[in-house]
Amino acid sequence: MDGNPDPLRTAKDVRETFKRMAMNDEETCALTAGGHTVGKCHGNGNAEDLSDAPEGGELEDQGFGWNNHKSRGIGANTVTSGLEGAWTTNPTQWDNGYFHLLLNYDWELKKSPAGAWQWEPINIKEEDMPVDAEDPSIRRNPIMTDADMAMKMDPEYRKISEKFYNNPEYFADVFARAWFKLTHRDLGPKSRYLGPDVPSEDLLWQDPIPTVDYTLSDSEISELKAKILATNLTVAELIATAWDSARTFRGSDNRGGANGGRIRLAPQKDWEGNEPARLQKVLNVLEGIQSGLAKKISLADLIVLGGTAAVEKAAKDGGVQITLPFTPGRGDATAEQTDIEGFEPLEPVHDAFRNYLKHDFKSKPEELMLDKAQLMGLTAAEMTVLLGGMRTLGVNYGGSKHGVFTDRVGTLSNDFFVHLVDMGYQWKPTGKNSYEIVERNTGNVRFTATRVDLVFGSSKPPEHCLLQRLF
Protein backbone atom coordinates (compact mmCIF):
# COMPACT_ATOMS: atom_id res chain seq x y z
CA MET A 1 0.00 0.00 0.00
CA ASP A 2 1.95 2.98 -1.34
CA GLY A 3 5.16 1.08 -0.58
CA ASN A 4 4.10 0.20 2.96
CA PRO A 5 2.86 -3.37 3.52
CA ASP A 6 -0.68 -3.41 4.92
CA PRO A 7 -2.77 -6.45 3.91
CA LEU A 8 -6.01 -5.14 5.41
CA ARG A 9 -5.81 -1.85 3.56
CA THR A 10 -4.80 -3.75 0.46
CA ALA A 11 -7.89 -5.93 0.88
CA LYS A 12 -10.03 -2.80 0.64
CA ASP A 13 -8.39 -1.74 -2.62
CA VAL A 14 -8.52 -5.26 -4.06
CA ARG A 15 -12.22 -5.48 -3.28
CA GLU A 16 -12.92 -2.11 -4.91
CA THR A 17 -10.81 -2.91 -8.00
CA PHE A 18 -12.52 -6.24 -8.63
CA LYS A 19 -15.94 -4.79 -7.88
CA ARG A 20 -15.41 -2.44 -10.81
CA MET A 21 -15.08 -5.57 -12.91
CA ALA A 22 -18.35 -6.85 -11.39
CA MET A 23 -16.53 -9.54 -9.39
CA ASN A 24 -17.76 -10.53 -5.95
CA ASP A 25 -15.52 -11.59 -3.06
CA GLU A 26 -15.59 -15.26 -4.00
CA GLU A 27 -14.66 -14.57 -7.61
CA THR A 28 -11.94 -12.15 -6.47
CA CYS A 29 -10.39 -14.70 -4.14
CA ALA A 30 -10.56 -17.42 -6.81
CA LEU A 31 -8.89 -15.23 -9.43
CA THR A 32 -6.17 -14.12 -7.03
CA ALA A 33 -5.42 -17.64 -5.81
CA GLY A 34 -5.80 -19.25 -9.21
CA GLY A 35 -3.61 -16.69 -10.92
CA HIS A 36 -0.92 -17.21 -8.29
CA THR A 37 -1.13 -21.00 -8.31
CA VAL A 38 1.16 -21.04 -11.34
CA GLY A 39 4.20 -18.92 -12.17
CA LYS A 40 6.47 -16.75 -10.04
CA CYS A 41 7.53 -13.18 -9.37
CA HIS A 42 10.83 -11.86 -10.69
CA GLY A 43 13.03 -9.60 -8.62
CA ASN A 44 16.41 -11.34 -8.35
CA GLY A 45 18.62 -8.38 -9.14
CA ASN A 46 19.04 -4.63 -8.98
CA ALA A 47 16.04 -2.78 -10.36
CA GLU A 48 18.28 0.20 -11.16
CA ASP A 49 20.02 -1.89 -13.82
CA LEU A 50 16.84 -2.05 -15.91
CA SER A 51 16.30 0.05 -19.03
CA ASP A 52 13.27 2.23 -19.63
CA ALA A 53 9.71 0.98 -20.11
CA PRO A 54 8.84 -0.23 -23.64
CA GLU A 55 7.64 3.15 -24.86
CA GLY A 56 10.82 4.81 -23.64
CA GLY A 57 13.32 2.25 -24.89
CA GLU A 58 15.92 2.62 -27.60
CA LEU A 59 15.17 1.72 -31.19
CA GLU A 60 17.24 -1.45 -30.98
CA ASP A 61 15.13 -2.72 -28.06
CA GLN A 62 12.30 -3.31 -30.54
CA GLY A 63 9.48 -2.82 -28.06
CA PHE A 64 11.00 -4.83 -25.21
CA GLY A 65 11.23 -2.76 -22.05
CA TRP A 66 13.00 -3.03 -18.73
CA ASN A 67 15.96 -4.80 -20.33
CA ASN A 68 18.99 -5.51 -18.19
CA HIS A 69 22.11 -4.58 -20.15
CA LYS A 70 24.44 -4.95 -17.16
CA SER A 71 23.91 -8.61 -16.33
CA ARG A 72 22.22 -11.74 -17.70
CA GLY A 73 18.74 -10.46 -16.86
CA ILE A 74 16.82 -13.63 -17.74
CA GLY A 75 15.87 -16.90 -16.02
CA ALA A 76 16.79 -16.84 -12.36
CA ASN A 77 18.19 -13.32 -12.78
CA THR A 78 15.03 -11.75 -14.17
CA VAL A 79 13.78 -8.50 -12.62
CA THR A 80 10.26 -7.27 -13.41
CA SER A 81 7.94 -6.60 -10.47
CA GLY A 82 10.81 -6.55 -8.01
CA LEU A 83 9.35 -9.32 -5.86
CA GLU A 84 11.19 -12.62 -6.09
CA GLY A 85 9.81 -16.12 -5.74
CA ALA A 86 7.00 -18.53 -6.54
CA TRP A 87 3.73 -18.62 -4.63
CA THR A 88 3.43 -22.39 -4.50
CA THR A 89 5.52 -25.51 -4.13
CA ASN A 90 4.74 -26.62 -7.68
CA PRO A 91 4.42 -23.40 -9.69
CA THR A 92 4.11 -25.19 -13.05
CA GLN A 93 1.00 -27.21 -12.22
CA TRP A 94 -2.57 -26.58 -11.07
CA ASP A 95 -3.14 -27.74 -7.51
CA ASN A 96 -4.33 -26.48 -4.13
CA GLY A 97 -0.86 -25.61 -2.94
CA TYR A 98 -1.56 -21.89 -2.74
CA PHE A 99 -4.03 -22.28 0.12
CA HIS A 100 -1.91 -25.01 1.77
CA LEU A 101 1.00 -22.60 2.14
CA LEU A 102 -1.02 -19.48 2.82
CA LEU A 103 -3.13 -20.95 5.61
CA ASN A 104 -0.74 -23.42 7.25
CA TYR A 105 2.26 -21.17 7.74
CA ASP A 106 2.92 -17.92 9.53
CA TRP A 107 4.43 -15.26 7.30
CA GLU A 108 6.90 -12.45 7.92
CA LEU A 109 8.00 -9.42 5.94
CA LYS A 110 11.30 -9.54 4.11
CA LYS A 111 12.98 -7.63 1.32
CA SER A 112 13.53 -9.20 -2.09
CA PRO A 113 16.97 -8.94 -3.76
CA ALA A 114 15.53 -6.03 -5.73
CA GLY A 115 14.49 -4.28 -2.50
CA ALA A 116 10.73 -4.89 -2.63
CA TRP A 117 8.69 -5.89 0.42
CA GLN A 118 7.32 -9.41 0.28
CA TRP A 119 6.03 -12.00 2.70
CA GLU A 120 7.94 -15.22 3.35
CA PRO A 121 6.98 -18.26 5.51
CA ILE A 122 8.45 -18.91 8.93
CA ASN A 123 10.00 -22.35 9.50
CA ILE A 124 8.73 -23.82 6.26
CA LYS A 125 9.30 -27.51 5.63
CA GLU A 126 11.84 -28.20 2.93
CA GLU A 127 9.40 -30.31 0.92
CA ASP A 128 7.06 -27.31 0.74
CA MET A 129 9.71 -25.06 -0.80
CA PRO A 130 9.64 -24.58 -4.59
CA VAL A 131 12.77 -25.42 -6.53
CA ASP A 132 14.99 -22.80 -8.13
CA ALA A 133 13.90 -21.57 -11.56
CA GLU A 134 16.97 -23.14 -13.19
CA ASP A 135 18.60 -25.50 -10.72
CA PRO A 136 16.19 -28.16 -9.35
CA SER A 137 18.70 -29.17 -6.70
CA ILE A 138 18.15 -25.85 -4.93
CA ARG A 139 14.98 -24.97 -3.04
CA ARG A 140 13.79 -21.42 -2.43
CA ASN A 141 11.32 -19.81 -0.09
CA PRO A 142 7.85 -19.19 -1.57
CA ILE A 143 6.51 -15.66 -1.30
CA MET A 144 3.21 -13.88 -0.89
CA THR A 145 2.26 -10.32 -1.79
CA ASP A 146 0.11 -7.97 0.26
CA ALA A 147 -2.84 -8.99 -1.95
CA ASP A 148 -2.21 -12.64 -1.09
CA MET A 149 -1.99 -11.91 2.61
CA ALA A 150 -5.29 -10.06 2.28
CA MET A 151 -6.87 -13.41 1.35
CA LYS A 152 -5.78 -14.63 4.77
CA MET A 153 -6.12 -11.60 7.00
CA ASP A 154 -9.35 -10.04 5.75
CA PRO A 155 -12.19 -11.84 7.62
CA GLU A 156 -14.42 -12.36 4.56
CA TYR A 157 -11.62 -13.39 2.25
CA ARG A 158 -10.35 -15.73 4.98
CA LYS A 159 -13.67 -17.61 5.09
CA ILE A 160 -13.60 -18.04 1.33
CA SER A 161 -9.95 -19.14 1.33
CA GLU A 162 -10.68 -21.82 3.91
CA LYS A 163 -13.69 -22.98 1.88
CA PHE A 164 -11.55 -23.29 -1.24
CA TYR A 165 -8.79 -25.08 0.70
CA ASN A 166 -11.21 -27.67 2.01
CA ASN A 167 -12.94 -28.12 -1.36
CA PRO A 168 -10.43 -28.02 -4.24
CA GLU A 169 -13.03 -29.04 -6.83
CA TYR A 170 -15.24 -26.12 -5.85
CA PHE A 171 -12.25 -23.76 -6.04
CA ALA A 172 -11.41 -24.99 -9.53
CA ASP A 173 -15.00 -24.50 -10.69
CA VAL A 174 -15.28 -20.99 -9.26
CA PHE A 175 -11.93 -20.02 -10.79
CA ALA A 176 -12.90 -21.40 -14.21
CA ARG A 177 -16.17 -19.48 -14.19
CA ALA A 178 -14.55 -16.27 -12.94
CA TRP A 179 -11.79 -16.56 -15.54
CA PHE A 180 -14.36 -17.05 -18.30
CA LYS A 181 -16.23 -14.01 -17.04
CA LEU A 182 -13.04 -11.93 -16.87
CA THR A 183 -11.99 -12.79 -20.41
CA HIS A 184 -15.41 -12.73 -22.09
CA ARG A 185 -17.39 -9.95 -20.42
CA ASP A 186 -16.27 -7.36 -22.95
CA LEU A 187 -17.81 -9.43 -25.77
CA GLY A 188 -21.26 -8.32 -24.70
CA PRO A 189 -24.35 -10.51 -25.12
CA LYS A 190 -23.94 -14.24 -25.61
CA SER A 191 -25.39 -13.86 -29.11
CA ARG A 192 -22.06 -12.31 -30.13
CA TYR A 193 -20.07 -15.45 -29.24
CA LEU A 194 -18.77 -17.53 -32.13
CA GLY A 195 -17.41 -21.06 -32.46
CA PRO A 196 -18.16 -24.57 -31.22
CA ASP A 197 -17.03 -23.93 -27.63
CA VAL A 198 -19.73 -21.44 -26.69
CA PRO A 199 -21.22 -22.69 -23.38
CA SER A 200 -24.90 -23.57 -23.50
CA GLU A 201 -25.48 -22.18 -20.01
CA ASP A 202 -26.83 -18.63 -19.72
CA LEU A 203 -24.89 -16.70 -17.11
CA LEU A 204 -26.29 -13.72 -15.20
CA TRP A 205 -23.31 -11.47 -15.98
CA GLN A 206 -24.02 -11.93 -19.70
CA ASP A 207 -27.17 -9.82 -19.22
CA PRO A 208 -29.43 -12.40 -20.88
CA ILE A 209 -32.41 -11.12 -22.85
CA PRO A 210 -35.35 -13.24 -24.05
CA THR A 211 -35.68 -13.42 -27.82
CA VAL A 212 -38.87 -12.29 -29.52
CA ASP A 213 -40.59 -14.01 -32.42
CA TYR A 214 -42.71 -11.21 -33.84
CA THR A 215 -42.24 -8.86 -36.76
CA LEU A 216 -43.93 -5.54 -37.44
CA SER A 217 -45.08 -4.26 -40.80
CA ASP A 218 -44.83 -0.59 -41.74
CA SER A 219 -48.56 -0.21 -41.19
CA GLU A 220 -48.38 -1.82 -37.74
CA ILE A 221 -45.52 0.48 -36.79
CA SER A 222 -47.49 3.53 -37.94
CA GLU A 223 -50.51 2.37 -35.95
CA LEU A 224 -48.44 1.94 -32.81
CA LYS A 225 -46.93 5.41 -33.21
CA ALA A 226 -50.41 6.90 -33.49
CA LYS A 227 -51.55 5.10 -30.34
CA ILE A 228 -48.57 6.42 -28.38
CA LEU A 229 -48.96 10.00 -29.62
CA ALA A 230 -52.67 9.91 -28.77
CA THR A 231 -51.87 9.53 -25.07
CA ASN A 232 -51.28 12.35 -22.60
CA LEU A 233 -47.50 11.90 -22.81
CA THR A 234 -45.50 14.85 -24.08
CA VAL A 235 -42.80 14.83 -26.72
CA ALA A 236 -40.21 15.57 -24.04
CA GLU A 237 -41.37 12.71 -21.80
CA LEU A 238 -41.28 10.17 -24.62
CA ILE A 239 -37.88 11.27 -25.92
CA ALA A 240 -36.31 11.48 -22.46
CA THR A 241 -37.48 7.95 -21.64
CA ALA A 242 -36.20 6.51 -24.92
CA TRP A 243 -32.89 8.31 -24.50
CA ASP A 244 -32.48 7.21 -20.89
CA SER A 245 -33.18 3.63 -21.94
CA ALA A 246 -30.52 3.72 -24.64
CA ARG A 247 -27.80 5.89 -23.08
CA THR A 248 -26.47 3.13 -20.82
CA PHE A 249 -24.94 1.44 -23.86
CA ARG A 250 -21.17 1.04 -23.65
CA GLY A 251 -19.27 0.30 -26.83
CA SER A 252 -16.35 -0.87 -24.72
CA ASP A 253 -18.12 -4.07 -23.66
CA ASN A 254 -21.50 -3.87 -25.46
CA ARG A 255 -23.40 -3.72 -22.17
CA GLY A 256 -26.45 -1.60 -21.49
CA GLY A 257 -28.69 0.00 -24.07
CA ALA A 258 -32.39 -0.22 -24.82
CA ASN A 259 -32.53 -3.94 -25.57
CA GLY A 260 -33.86 -5.78 -22.53
CA GLY A 261 -36.02 -2.88 -21.38
CA ARG A 262 -34.15 -2.92 -18.07
CA ILE A 263 -34.99 0.74 -17.46
CA ARG A 264 -38.25 -0.57 -15.99
CA LEU A 265 -36.35 -2.79 -13.48
CA ALA A 266 -34.13 -2.18 -10.48
CA PRO A 267 -31.67 -0.57 -10.28
CA GLN A 268 -32.34 1.59 -13.35
CA LYS A 269 -35.90 2.54 -12.47
CA ASP A 270 -34.63 4.16 -9.29
CA TRP A 271 -31.59 6.01 -10.67
CA GLU A 272 -31.78 9.74 -9.99
CA GLY A 273 -30.78 10.60 -13.54
CA ASN A 274 -33.73 8.63 -14.91
CA GLU A 275 -36.22 10.83 -13.01
CA PRO A 276 -38.18 7.92 -11.46
CA ALA A 277 -41.52 9.74 -11.23
CA ARG A 278 -41.50 10.80 -14.89
CA LEU A 279 -40.19 7.41 -15.94
CA GLN A 280 -42.93 5.52 -14.12
CA LYS A 281 -45.59 7.75 -15.66
CA VAL A 282 -44.36 6.91 -19.16
CA LEU A 283 -43.98 3.21 -18.38
CA ASN A 284 -47.52 3.02 -17.01
CA VAL A 285 -48.96 4.51 -20.19
CA LEU A 286 -46.88 2.29 -22.47
CA GLU A 287 -47.78 -0.80 -20.44
CA GLY A 288 -51.42 0.14 -20.86
CA ILE A 289 -50.98 0.24 -24.63
CA GLN A 290 -49.04 -3.03 -24.54
CA SER A 291 -51.76 -4.85 -22.61
CA GLY A 292 -54.37 -3.87 -25.18
CA LEU A 293 -52.49 -5.14 -28.22
CA ALA A 294 -53.52 -8.31 -30.01
CA LYS A 295 -49.87 -8.93 -30.89
CA LYS A 296 -47.50 -9.08 -27.93
CA ILE A 297 -44.92 -6.30 -28.35
CA SER A 298 -42.03 -5.87 -25.92
CA LEU A 299 -41.97 -2.79 -23.75
CA ALA A 300 -38.37 -2.28 -24.84
CA ASP A 301 -39.60 -1.84 -28.42
CA LEU A 302 -42.47 0.43 -27.34
CA ILE A 303 -40.10 2.70 -25.40
CA VAL A 304 -37.87 3.19 -28.44
CA LEU A 305 -40.84 3.52 -30.76
CA GLY A 306 -42.32 6.17 -28.48
CA GLY A 307 -39.17 8.24 -28.74
CA THR A 308 -39.13 7.76 -32.50
CA ALA A 309 -42.74 8.92 -32.85
CA ALA A 310 -42.05 11.95 -30.65
CA VAL A 311 -39.04 13.03 -32.73
CA GLU A 312 -41.11 12.73 -35.91
CA LYS A 313 -43.85 14.87 -34.37
CA ALA A 314 -41.32 17.47 -33.22
CA ALA A 315 -39.88 17.64 -36.73
CA LYS A 316 -43.36 17.92 -38.25
CA ASP A 317 -44.13 20.80 -35.89
CA GLY A 318 -41.06 22.48 -37.34
CA GLY A 319 -42.30 22.00 -40.87
CA VAL A 320 -40.30 18.89 -41.76
CA GLN A 321 -42.02 15.61 -42.58
CA ILE A 322 -39.74 12.66 -41.78
CA THR A 323 -40.12 8.96 -41.07
CA LEU A 324 -37.36 7.59 -38.89
CA PRO A 325 -36.26 4.00 -39.37
CA PHE A 326 -37.35 1.60 -36.67
CA THR A 327 -36.21 -1.99 -36.28
CA PRO A 328 -38.21 -4.11 -33.80
CA GLY A 329 -36.89 -7.18 -32.02
CA ARG A 330 -35.89 -6.05 -28.54
CA GLY A 331 -36.81 -8.35 -25.69
CA ASP A 332 -37.89 -7.63 -22.13
CA ALA A 333 -35.50 -8.99 -19.53
CA THR A 334 -36.85 -10.13 -16.17
CA ALA A 335 -35.64 -9.20 -12.70
CA GLU A 336 -34.20 -12.71 -12.38
CA GLN A 337 -32.11 -12.07 -15.49
CA THR A 338 -30.72 -8.82 -14.12
CA ASP A 339 -27.63 -8.51 -11.95
CA ILE A 340 -28.57 -5.45 -9.89
CA GLU A 341 -25.11 -4.91 -8.43
CA GLY A 342 -23.49 -5.54 -11.80
CA PHE A 343 -25.52 -2.74 -13.38
CA GLU A 344 -24.55 -0.12 -10.81
CA PRO A 345 -21.45 1.03 -12.76
CA LEU A 346 -23.71 1.85 -15.72
CA GLU A 347 -25.61 4.51 -13.78
CA PRO A 348 -25.44 7.83 -15.67
CA VAL A 349 -23.99 10.22 -13.10
CA HIS A 350 -23.40 12.77 -15.84
CA ASP A 351 -25.15 13.32 -19.15
CA ALA A 352 -24.42 16.45 -21.14
CA PHE A 353 -27.18 15.59 -23.61
CA ARG A 354 -29.74 16.18 -20.87
CA ASN A 355 -27.58 18.77 -19.06
CA TYR A 356 -27.31 16.56 -16.00
CA LEU A 357 -24.59 16.30 -13.36
CA LYS A 358 -25.24 14.22 -10.27
CA HIS A 359 -22.18 15.58 -8.49
CA ASP A 360 -19.64 18.35 -8.82
CA PHE A 361 -16.91 16.34 -10.51
CA LYS A 362 -13.23 17.17 -10.72
CA SER A 363 -13.34 16.76 -14.50
CA LYS A 364 -14.92 19.54 -16.52
CA PRO A 365 -18.47 18.88 -17.80
CA GLU A 366 -17.30 19.09 -21.41
CA GLU A 367 -14.65 16.46 -20.74
CA LEU A 368 -17.28 14.17 -19.26
CA MET A 369 -19.43 14.81 -22.35
CA LEU A 370 -16.66 13.66 -24.67
CA ASP A 371 -16.08 10.58 -22.55
CA LYS A 372 -19.78 9.69 -22.62
CA ALA A 373 -20.06 10.25 -26.36
CA GLN A 374 -17.02 8.06 -27.01
CA LEU A 375 -18.39 5.32 -24.78
CA MET A 376 -21.68 5.36 -26.68
CA GLY A 377 -19.84 5.16 -29.99
CA LEU A 378 -20.95 8.58 -31.24
CA THR A 379 -18.97 10.59 -33.75
CA ALA A 380 -18.22 14.25 -33.09
CA ALA A 381 -20.94 15.29 -35.53
CA GLU A 382 -23.48 12.92 -33.97
CA MET A 383 -22.64 14.20 -30.49
CA THR A 384 -23.12 17.78 -31.61
CA VAL A 385 -26.40 17.36 -33.46
CA LEU A 386 -27.89 15.19 -30.71
CA LEU A 387 -27.10 17.71 -27.99
CA GLY A 388 -28.32 20.70 -30.00
CA GLY A 389 -31.47 18.91 -31.09
CA MET A 390 -32.32 17.64 -27.63
CA ARG A 391 -31.96 21.13 -26.20
CA THR A 392 -34.70 22.43 -28.49
CA LEU A 393 -36.87 19.40 -27.69
CA GLY A 394 -36.84 20.39 -24.01
CA VAL A 395 -35.58 17.11 -22.54
CA ASN A 396 -33.15 18.57 -20.01
CA TYR A 397 -33.04 16.86 -16.65
CA GLY A 398 -35.59 18.31 -14.28
CA GLY A 399 -36.93 20.67 -16.93
CA SER A 400 -33.84 22.89 -16.70
CA LYS A 401 -33.77 25.78 -19.17
CA HIS A 402 -29.98 25.84 -19.49
CA GLY A 403 -29.03 25.62 -23.15
CA VAL A 404 -32.63 25.73 -24.38
CA PHE A 405 -31.91 28.47 -26.93
CA THR A 406 -35.35 28.59 -28.50
CA ASP A 407 -38.83 30.02 -28.10
CA ARG A 408 -40.29 26.89 -29.71
CA VAL A 409 -39.55 24.27 -27.08
CA GLY A 410 -40.65 20.84 -28.25
CA THR A 411 -40.14 21.64 -31.91
CA LEU A 412 -37.09 20.13 -33.57
CA SER A 413 -35.09 23.00 -35.01
CA ASN A 414 -31.57 24.37 -35.34
CA ASP A 415 -32.32 27.24 -32.94
CA PHE A 416 -29.64 26.05 -30.51
CA PHE A 417 -26.91 26.65 -33.08
CA VAL A 418 -28.44 29.83 -34.46
CA HIS A 419 -28.44 31.55 -31.08
CA LEU A 420 -25.12 30.05 -30.02
CA VAL A 421 -23.22 31.82 -32.78
CA ASP A 422 -25.35 34.97 -32.94
CA MET A 423 -23.01 37.95 -32.51
CA GLY A 424 -25.90 39.92 -31.08
CA TYR A 425 -25.31 38.14 -27.79
CA GLN A 426 -22.49 37.99 -25.29
CA TRP A 427 -21.90 35.46 -22.57
CA LYS A 428 -21.46 36.23 -18.91
CA PRO A 429 -20.50 33.68 -16.24
CA THR A 430 -22.81 33.52 -13.24
CA GLY A 431 -21.19 30.59 -11.42
CA LYS A 432 -18.80 27.66 -11.79
CA ASN A 433 -20.96 26.00 -14.44
CA SER A 434 -23.57 28.60 -15.35
CA TYR A 435 -23.78 31.47 -17.81
CA GLU A 436 -26.24 34.01 -19.13
CA ILE A 437 -26.74 35.01 -22.75
CA VAL A 438 -27.14 38.77 -22.72
CA GLU A 439 -28.33 40.94 -25.59
CA ARG A 440 -25.49 43.30 -26.44
CA ASN A 441 -27.71 46.27 -27.29
CA THR A 442 -30.07 46.07 -24.30
CA GLY A 443 -28.24 44.08 -21.63
CA ASN A 444 -31.31 41.88 -21.20
CA VAL A 445 -30.82 38.24 -20.29
CA ARG A 446 -32.02 36.08 -23.20
CA PHE A 447 -31.00 32.54 -22.21
CA THR A 448 -28.94 30.63 -19.65
CA ALA A 449 -26.38 27.92 -20.31
CA THR A 450 -23.76 25.55 -18.91
CA ARG A 451 -20.25 24.72 -20.05
CA VAL A 452 -21.44 21.85 -22.25
CA ASP A 453 -23.59 24.32 -24.17
CA LEU A 454 -20.95 26.99 -24.70
CA VAL A 455 -18.14 24.59 -25.55
CA PHE A 456 -19.58 24.17 -29.03
CA GLY A 457 -18.83 27.78 -29.81
CA SER A 458 -15.63 28.18 -27.80
CA SER A 459 -12.28 29.05 -29.35
CA LYS A 460 -10.40 28.30 -26.15
CA PRO A 461 -7.89 25.44 -26.42
CA PRO A 462 -8.19 22.52 -26.29
CA GLU A 463 -11.82 22.71 -27.33
CA HIS A 464 -11.42 25.21 -30.19
CA CYS A 465 -14.72 25.89 -31.83
CA LEU A 466 -16.35 22.51 -32.26
CA LEU A 467 -18.86 24.00 -34.67
CA GLN A 468 -16.09 25.39 -36.89
CA ARG A 469 -14.18 22.11 -36.75
CA LEU A 470 -17.23 19.99 -37.55
CA PHE A 471 -19.07 22.12 -40.07
UniProtKB/TrEMBL annotation:
InterPro entries: Catalase_peroxidase, Haem_peroxidase, Haem_peroxidase_sf. Its cofactor is heme b. One of its GO terms (molecular function) is heme binding. GO terms for cellular component: cytosol. GO terms for biological process: cellular response to hydrogen peroxide; hydrogen peroxide catabolic process. Keywords: Heme, Hydrogen peroxide, Iron, Metal-binding, Oxidoreductase, Peroxidase. The keyword Metal-binding applies. It catalyses: 2 H2O2 = O2 + 2 H2O. Gene3D superfamilies: 1.10.520.10, Peroxidase, domain 2. Residues 4-167, 224-401 form the Plant heme peroxidase family profile domain. Signal peptide: none annotated. PANTHER family: CATALASE-PEROXIDASE, HYDROPEROXIDASE I, BIFUNCTIONAL CATALASE-PEROXIDASE. This is Catalase/peroxidase HPI.
